[in-house]
């Protein structure tokens, strides 16, 4: 029995709860699962588990998650094998909801082990996978639907596609918004710096990139792309060309930077902006049984004329959301959207430039906006003897990757100072101060101290939503290199 939409339902409610073809969502589920399986196996093949998690003596945990610790090498390898199998289960739709939930928990555990391994695509994977726990993407093209006839459906509530479209659009939009800053737009930094000194690290190395205008072309072009791509994907008339542009953009990034599966994930995810029956139009699956909305003449529009494969929920059984639960669904989605929109702006709560202080930089889609290099070493002062010892040999303690990220982040410098004091206490040298001496250059500027060298960082506590007074400000204009 179906429920007719209530007269009080507004356009948003009708859009979110009407039925649409499930084929596009099934493709997304399969592509996501395959890419995640590939990524998990890559950790095993490239020995990233030892390099990132079990090898370093110090891991830079997130606030409140100090208790998250890696297991042994064998345990971590077994975990990644299980994660690969769970990702494969998501792809084929085998015990889909359980597989999605377990993969989310396992991947989040790995994500929380070390801030030095943070990147935006792993954060996006966490968000998408959390949504997939609730999205019924297994109702077609899955083993679950094969042996559970009551689960089968060729339709799904259109709101599930829109929440995915929103989440996939967030990195594009906020990534472009973050680029509207002086260094990126007026100096083309750090793109020009990377091109001049081959810091991009990708396989694409062309002499033309060393031209003066190349950095500006990529900086301005990237900003325009990020800000415009979502509206162009949503608008039917430009959607195909926008998808081609997005594919070219991500393929270029895959050759310029070492960013793993992110380009391939975004190419696959961007297909969610097409009409939901696009795999059927290409003949990848059978014909749809979803009725087409009627035009003004009273005749049904065909998909070939560009009509969306959707219908009011009263017309197609199996995906109707009862009116009694619609308010709960709308409130929950509203809270999710609100958090995703506000979180990237939290850096405005802190003084100073976010690319320098790093306060509010993570979880804000601030991608490829800063390049920091310089020197960080620690001075250990024995209070009893007043003897100072300089510590700057990180071999066997943290990896080069961790050291590079520590140069970016004052709080990671603080964490290392705390860890260093704890390690000395274990050796019987407990009454010490640990200070950091830093000289860091931001986006080609002259080096400047990042933290106060007179502060004992081993006694400093993390402060939520409050600026750290021991992080020294940077005069962004005075530190610019001479023209």
Q: Are there runs of 5+ residues with pLDDT below 50, and where?
A: 1-8, 293-319
Q: What is the share of helical residues? A: 40-55%
Strand content: 5-15%
N to C succession of SSEs: HEHHHHHHEHHHHHHHEHHEEHHE
Largest sheet properties: 3 strands, antiparallel
Radius of gyration: 26 Å
Mean pLDDT: 88
Q: What is the terminal separation in angstroms?
A: 74 Å
Class per helix and strand makeup: mainly alpha
User: Total strand count, please?
Assistant: 6
Q: What is the overall shape?
A: globular
Strand order of the largest sheet: 2-1-3
Number of helices: 18
Describe the structure.
By secondary structure, this protein is mainly α. Helices cover 48% and strands 7% of the residues. It contains 18 helices and six strands. The protein has helices at 11-17, 23-45, 48-54, 73-92, 96-111, 120-134, 143-147, 158-178, 182-186, 191-197, 212-234, 236-256, 262-270, 278-281, 323-342, 354-357, 400-408, 410-426, and strands spanning 19-21, 155-157, 310-311, 372-382, 387-391, 432-442. The strands form two sheets. It has a three-stranded antiparallel β-sheet with strand order 2-1-3. The longest helix has 23 residues, at 23-45. The radius of gyration is 26 Å and the shape is globular. Residues 1-8 and 293-319 have low confidence and may be disordered.
Features:
483 residues, mainly alpha, disordered N terminus, single chain, three-stranded antiparallel beta sheet, 18 helices, 7% strand, globular
């Amino acid at each position: 029995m179906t429920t007719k939409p209530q007269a009080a339902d507004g356009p948003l409610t009708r859009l979110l709860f009407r039925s649409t073809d499930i084929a596009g969502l099934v493709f997304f589920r399969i592509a996501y699962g395959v890419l995640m399986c590939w990524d998990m196996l890559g950790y095993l093949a490239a020995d990233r588990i030892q390099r990132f998690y079990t090898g370093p003596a110090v891991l830079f945990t997130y606030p409140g998650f100090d208790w998250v610790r890696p297991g042994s090498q064998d345990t971590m390898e077994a975990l990644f094998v299980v994660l690969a199998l769970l990702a494969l289960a998501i792809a084929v739709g085998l015990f889909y909801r359980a597989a999605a939930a377990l993969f989310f928990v396992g991947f989040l555990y790995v994500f929380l082990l070390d801030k030095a391994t943070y990147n935006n695509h792993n954060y996006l994977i966490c968000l998408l996978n959390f949504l997939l726990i609730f999205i019924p993407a297994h109702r077609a093209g899955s083993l679950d639907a094969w042996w559970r006839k009551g689960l089968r459906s060729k339709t799904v509530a259109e709101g599930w596609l829109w929440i995915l479209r929103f989440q996939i659009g967030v990195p594009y939009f906020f990534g472009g918004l973050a680029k509207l800053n002086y260094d990126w737009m007026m100096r083309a930094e750090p793109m020009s710096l990377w091109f001049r000194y081959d810091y991009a690290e990708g396989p694409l190395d062309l002499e033309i990139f060393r031209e003066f205008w190349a950095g500006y072309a990529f900086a301005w072009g990237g900003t325009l792309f990020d800000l415009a791509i979502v509206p162009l994907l949503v608008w039917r008339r430009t959607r195909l060309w926008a998808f081609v542009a997005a594919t070219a953009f991500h393929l270029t990034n895959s050759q310029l930077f070492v960013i793993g599966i992110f380009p391939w994930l975004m190419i696959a995810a961007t297909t969610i902006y097409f009409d939901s029956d696009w795999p059927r139009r290409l003949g990848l699956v059978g014909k749809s049984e979803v009725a087409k909305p009627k035009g003004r003449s009273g005749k049904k529009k065909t998909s070939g004329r560009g009509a969306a494969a959707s219908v009011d929920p009263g017309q197609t059984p199996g995906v109707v959301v009862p009116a009694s639960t619609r308010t709960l669904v709308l409130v929950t989605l509203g809270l999710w959207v609100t958090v995703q929109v506000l979180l990237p702006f939290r850096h405005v709560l802190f003084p100073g430039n976010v690319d320098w202080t790093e306060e509010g930089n993570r979880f804000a889609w601030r991608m490829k906006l800063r390049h920091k290099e310089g020197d960080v070493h620690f001075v250990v002062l024995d209070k009893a003897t007043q003897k100072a010892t300089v510590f700057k040999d990180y071999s066997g303690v943290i990896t080069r990757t961790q050291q590079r990220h520590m140069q970016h982040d004052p709080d990671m410098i603080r964490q290392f100072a705390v860890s260093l004091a704890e390690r000395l206490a274990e050796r019987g040298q407990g009454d010490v101060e640990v200070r950091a001496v830093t000289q860091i250059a931001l986006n080609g500027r002259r080096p400047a101290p990042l933290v106060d060298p007179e502060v004992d960082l081993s006694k400093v506590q993390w402060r939520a939503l409050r600026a750290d007074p021991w992080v020294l400000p940077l005069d962004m204009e005075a530190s610019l290199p001479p023209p």
